[in-house]
Design brief:
Distance between the termini: 38 Å
Oligomer: single chain
Number of strands: 15
CATH architecture of one domain: 3-Layer(aba) Sandwich
Number of helices: 22
Bound molecules: pyridoxal-5'-phosphate
Mean pLDDT: 94
């Protein structure tokens, strides 16, 4: 198995793709071709547990890893880290629809599915290709990624992790999750600016020769833990394969029968992993892409025009407040027949004009499999209440966006295909919005008071990793100007 770039022809091993994160010309690493999960293998996988299923998928991509290395990675990532040791359970709503709960990990958001595994993949890769250098992971976060990366990388040997978040841009729960993080290789810093400032700062540091050379002289190297890294994508393919196995196991579909997926989408990593699962042989029918009021993807799927020249909205589903969905580039690469020149052309238009358009043929291909839908905060809240009243099922704001878009889709098409709705966060990560939705509460109280109330009103437990936060010591208090990120890094690395 070899990897190439979406913008340049390459032939590299997975260990290189994972340590580098992004290709030097700015493209994203993608498999040259998709390995196949044959009917016999899938048949066997139905009776496997999550770790065994993960092994079967990973070994097809990480052909430069030994079986033993992959088993160690999977064991470290998923054993004892998720509620009931079941990382991706399906919860059945009715005859046609189930919810794939991806938030039973240590930080209560779906980012754990990949970020518990990535440190193992990265350190194993670095041993192969980076001569035992210390990997310095830089993360800019609007909330969920930062904590999930901190939790995954804390005390992992030969790594250091530094997280930058916008000082006023994360929820109180998310902030406390990050600032109380323990570990002797972790650093957390608030930036006086918004998420874009943090993100731009990190990108500039990645491409700054002076600091890169300084790191190299000290036997260190930067790497990335955000979703452009293929090492974050491959663990996400696993849970789509796993949910197919679980649908069969529970008699919801027969082997080979199609099912649809609905995915609350931001950077397009999660839904792309579903598309990759299909390329490997998982019979997914429609990919239903759900957005909040930042509905650039809905417009793109409907019209073929991607146009970021529009207002940016802050919504109750903040992890989907995004105008540039990086991983869409990987889908374009496939739809355009793996033509890196065409992808490069669209991406340079995007950076120059903030806009590009795909041709009619490509749009037809996109529409044959993808459906786009969106809703606003009011509809999100109504859906949380509806789902709770109707099914006694409590979901978070991001999941509610997916549920609403699915409802609209079924109303419009009458499609009764078995459907998996992807749930990306625990409702307790967004207690305030969720409580206001189910209980018509005014939102004057603190997030933590709301958390306890939510538990009383809905008779659901507060996840343990969040329940204890209030009493944890705040360990990270740094707040810096956005121009001071490099200084923060140097200080923390003792350079
Ligand atoms: C990151 C995130 C998303 C968006 O996922 P993408 O892979 O970026 O599309 C959705 N919901 C939650 C809760 C998230 O943390």
């Amino acid at each position: 198995m070899k990897f190439t770039s979406t913008r340049a022809n390459k032939q590299i091993e997975s260990a290189n793709a994972i340590t580098r994160g992004i290709s030097e010309e700015g493209g994203l690493f993608v498999p040259v071709e998709f390995p196949q999960l044959g009917a016999d293998t899938l048949d066997k996988m139905v009776d496997m547990n999550y770790k065994e299923r993960a092994f079967e998928v990973l070994r097809l991509y990480l052909t430069d890893f030994t079986d033993e290395e992959i088993k160690n990675c999977v064991e470290g990532a998923y054993e004892g880290k998720f509620d009931n040791n079941i990382p991706a359970p399906l919860s059945f709503l009715n005859d046609n629809a189930s919810v794939l709960e991806l938030w039973h990990g240590p930080t209560c958001a779906f980012k754990d599915m990949a970020l518990q595994l990535l440190p193992y993949l990265l350190t194993t890769s670095a041993k192969k290709v980076a001569d035992g250098k210390t990997m310095v992971i830089l993360v800019a976060t609007s909330g969920d990624t930062g904590k999930a990366a901190l939790d995954g990388f804390a005390d992992v040997e030969n790594t250091k992790i530094m997280v930058f978040y916008p000082v006023d841009g994360v929820s109180p729960m998310q902030k406390l999750q990050m600032t109380t993080q323990t570990g002797n290789n972790v650093a957390v810093c608030a930036i006086k600016g918004n998420f874009d400032d943090a993100q731009t700062g990190v990108k500039q540091i990645f491409t700054n020769d002076e600091i890169r050379n300084l790191l190299a002289e000290n036997n260190m190297e930067f790497s990335s833990a955000n979703s452009i890294n293929f090492g974050r994508l491959v663990p996400q393919i696993v849970y789509y394969v796993s949910s197919y196995c679980d649908l069969i196991k529970n008699g919801k579909i027969k082997a080979g029968e199609q099912f649809n997926v609905v995915v609350p989408t931001g950077n397009f990593g999660n839904i792309l992993a579903a598309y990759y699962a299909k390329q490997m042989g998982i019979p997914i029918g429609k990919f239903i892409c759900a957005s909040n009021k930042n509905n650039i993807l809905t417009d793109f799927i409907n019209t073929g025009v991607y146009d970021r020249n529009r207002d940016f909205y802050t919504t109750s589903s903040p992890s989907m407040d995004i105008l540039i969905s990086s991983n869409l580039e990987r889908l374009l690469f496939e739809l355009l027949g793996k033509d890196e020149a065409k992808v490069s052309d669209l991406m340079s238009k995007l950076s120059k004009d903030g806009k590009y358009e795909i041709d009619a043929d490509t749009l037809a291909k996109l529409k044959a499999e993808f459906v786009g839908g969106c809703c606003d905060d009011e509809q999100t809240a109504e859906t949380i209440k509806w789902l709770f009243d109707e099914y006694n099922y409590l979901c978070d704001t991001h999941t509610a966006v997916a549920v609403k878009v699915y409802k609209d889709y079924v109303e419009k098409t009458g499609d009764k295909t078995q459907t998996v709705i992807v749930s990306t966060a625990s409702p307790y990560k967004f207690s305030k919005s969720v409580l206001c939705a189910v209980d018509n509460e005014d939102d004057t109280e603190t997030e933590f008071d709301m958390t306890e109330k939510l538990s009383k009103v809905t008779k659901t437990p507060i996840p343990a990793p969040l329940a204890g936060l209030k009493d944890r010591e705040v360990l990270h208090k740094s707040v810096r100007e956005k121009g001071q990120m490099t200084d923060f890094i140097k200080e923390n690395l003792g350079l």
